[in-house]
From TrEMBL:
Residues 1-45 are annotated as: Disordered. Residues 66-109 form the Transposase IS66 zinc-finger binding domain. This is Putative helix-turn-helix domain of transposase IS66. It comes from Leptospira kirschneri str. H1. InterPro entries: Transposase-related, Transposase_IS66_central, Znf_dom_IS66. It comes from the Bacteria.
């Protein structure tokens, strides 16, 4: 036999191998299922409308006859069902009438004190655009539509015309210019706020202006946008320039000593 031909050393080695094989555990059967980590799902369905929206309730009730049971007794109200629909009230045009009563003395007709005016009347209320026929609320509305909602003045004029208001786009444009002239000192304050930031973002974008002085309509102008962060809130300044030169950056940002993030346009090298 084969075992009879093995020497003592071979027999010892065989016994060791058999011993090691006995110590090896049998492999478990591979599971058909792979564990998957649980995850949260985003809730579906309509979000409720904010609580600060006013609620106008409309009651839809059954008739008084239907409130009587077949047994002859009156039905009791045991609950109700509510559903909400979002409504909007379109812009409503109205006319503000400012009345300033005039006063005078019919007895002396103002001769008792010549230093005082003969007729007394309250001063004209302060207006953002003097001698404008548009109220401050109207101006805020039309400027928001123009610059925040990208609705040109000629389209606004068409919308107003459907409401019976004959107001040209030039009138809207002139009123916006008056508002700018009144608020332009605020630009200095905005710039001061920007410089309180340790970090600025700057970019410029092409803006085409029609009928600009000494420039053809096909030429390019630029809107510079500077953004900073004060108390974790963004402060943004928009500034129009007819060119893309570095002079604007030197005049406005040259003395800023914080970090500036821009693209690779060469004009920004003037800030280095």
């Amino acid at each position: 036999m084969e075992s009879d031909r093995e020497g003592p050393r071979a027999s010892i080695q065989r016994d060791r191998v058999l011993s090691l094989q006995e110590d090896v555990p049998e492999p478990e059967e591979e599971s058909l299922f792979t564990p998957v980590k649980s995850h949260t799902r985003k809730k579906t369905g309509r979000k409720p409308f904010p609580d600060y929206f006013p609620r106008i309730e409309t009651l839809h009730d059954i008739s008084e006859a239907e409130k009587t049971c077949a047994c002859g007794h009156t039905l009791s109200r045991i609950g109700e069902e509510k559903s909400e629909k979002l409504d909007i009230i379109p812009a409503k045009v109205q006319v503000e009438v400012h009345i300033r009563p005039k006063y005078a003395c019919k007895h002396c007709e103002g001769t008792s004190d010549e230093t005082l005016p003969v007729v007394k009347i309250a001063p004209v209320p302060a207006q953002i655009a003097e001698k404008s026929m548009l109220s401050s609320g109207f101006l805020a509305y039309t400027i928001t539509q123009k610059f925040a909602d990208a609705l040109p003045f000629y389209r606004q004029a068409g919308i107003l015309q459907r409401s019976g208001v004959d107001l040209s786009r030039s009138a809207l444009s002139n009123a916006a210019i008056q508002v700018y002239e009144k608020l332009s000192p605020m630009i200095v304050d905005i710039r001061k706020e920007l410089f309180k930031s340790k970090y600025l973002q700057i970019d410029e974008t092409v803006l085409q202006v029609l009928n600009e002085v000494e420039k053809p309509n096909t030429s390019k102008s630029y809107m510079w946008v500077i953004r900073g962060f004060i108390r974790e809130k963004p402060v943004v300044l928009y500034h129009y320039e007819s060119s893309r030169s570095a002079k604007f950056l030197e005049d406005w940002i040259g003395d800023f000593d914080g970090i500036i993030q821009t693209d690779g346009f060469e004009s920004y090298d003037s800030l280095l």
